[in-house]
Amino acid sequence: MNTLKATIVTLVLAMAMCAPALANPAVGTNPFLPSDGSMADIYIPLQLSTSGVLGDLIGGGPDQVGLDPDSLIVSGANPTTSGDVAFELAFDLTGEIAQGQVITAGTIFLTFRDLDLLQVSSSVMNYQETLTVVLLKDSGDDANGAPSVTIDDTNLNSFLPAPTSQTDETTLTYEIDIINAFFGGNPAAAAAFFADLNADENFALELTMESEFEYLKSAKRTLNNSAEQISTQDFAFFAVPEPATLMMLAMGSVALLRRRKA
To answer: What does the pLDDT average to over 110-130?
Structure first.
């Protein structure tokens, strides 16, 4: 009997561990970004007055936050400045989860070009950007208190398939494992998120891209920001048979073993 129990446990664990990623990963969408995989320009603001949510009007318009460039006059009297743009990516998994399966893990892939997580320096200035990603159970949820991760010069290589020493004018795909990045590698801590995801088949991310600029000269100078680019944002997820299905499979294995013994 002990041998029979061991056989059932091994069978169930193997099913869970060997479940493949589903073939069609979900793509994050935003009204201001293309969903066909093409690169989209986003301007990270240089100052607080042009910062905010992607697409919001700056002042009375017509310029929009993150969609139009801005300029700033700096001098030795005001050598540092910063700005940011935030936007949501909504992931709809309707029809992507096979009947009788549940999602237990997933990785988010975010591709950027010229996102300067490593500092760009010259005799005139130092410039650097950061990326903060907040995990939301549902689109429109309040980001305050939600699990988040900030990617910058201290940890970017932890999210890349291979280390890099260059982010300026470079295209890189950051791989964010949900359990490791947002829940400290603890599957139990992520259980509530995945339970909600399996129930309503959607979730969202809030991304904030921030710039920090330091001017090293005394003469006045006009700064103009250039566009960063973001392309398709994918969520590749892993699904296994739900517990009830696993139990049925295990019971079927018991019957099969019993028949063989008979």
So the answer is: 92
The 10s digit of each residue's pLDDT in 138-181 is 999 999 999 999 999 999 999 999 999 999 999 999 999 999 99
Question: pTM score, two decimals?
Answer: 0.82
Answer yes or no: are the C-beta atoms of 202 and 213 closer than 8 Å: no
Local structure of residue 68 (DSSP, 8 states): S
Taking only the tens place, the pLDDT of each residue in 206-254 is 999 999 999 898 888 888 888 888 876 777 777 776 654 334 333 433 4
First-to-last alpha carbon distance for the chain, in angstroms, is 15
> Which amino acid, residue 176?
I
Contacts of 69 (CB under 8 A, 6+ apart): 43, 224, 225, 226, 227
Nearest to 14 by CA among 255, 256, 246, 257: 246
Structure tokens at 136: 């939301």
40: left (phi over 0), alpha (psi -120 to 50) or beta: beta
Q: Quote the CA–CA distance of 135 and 126 in Å, as a whole number.
A: 30
Q: Is the dihedral of CA 165, 205, 54, 26 positive or negative?
A: positive
Q: At which residue do the structure tokens 């049925």 appear?
A: 248
